[in-house]
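ok so for the tutorial part 2 we go from a plain amino acid sequence to predicted structure tokens. step 1 is just haveing the sequence, like this:
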Amino acid sequence: MPMLKLTTSLTERLTQMASVARSRAETTPPGPKREALLKAARVSENALHIQQWLRSPGLRTPT
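step 2 — the prediction. this is what the tokens look like for a chain of 63 residues:
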């Protein structure tokens, strides 16, 4: 199976996913679909924070 070459970084993809979900939620009437979009935005934002934390220079390996 050929490898998929990604042209954008994980940070960029997560940021874009969160932004798109929040934008769509703003135009969606209150209800389950809007809540699902807001949840998707929060999940993407949380993943972004975790990814940034893991890449931070202050992170040390356990000893």
